[in-house]
Amino acid sequence: MININKYIKNNLLAVKVIPNASKTKIIEENNSIKVYLHAPPKKNKANVELIKFFKKEYNLKFTIKSGEKSREKVLQIL
Fold it and tell me: What is d(CA 42, CA 32) in angstroms, rounded to the nearest whole number?
């Protein structure tokens, strides 16, 4: 598990999401966070999986502030 605290600024976290991955995982790449999601991007499934992933792995609750239909997302931590 990577330390995401250095990427959180003003309760916002920018991530790049890759749906339809073989398994759900998070990596650091080029000074940013990339989240691979097993769920497809259809019917909001990838967004739901993203929220569940951060709740389970980091015990963080957040909303998607921008990028709901994009791979580039900004998450607001509640």
Answer: 25
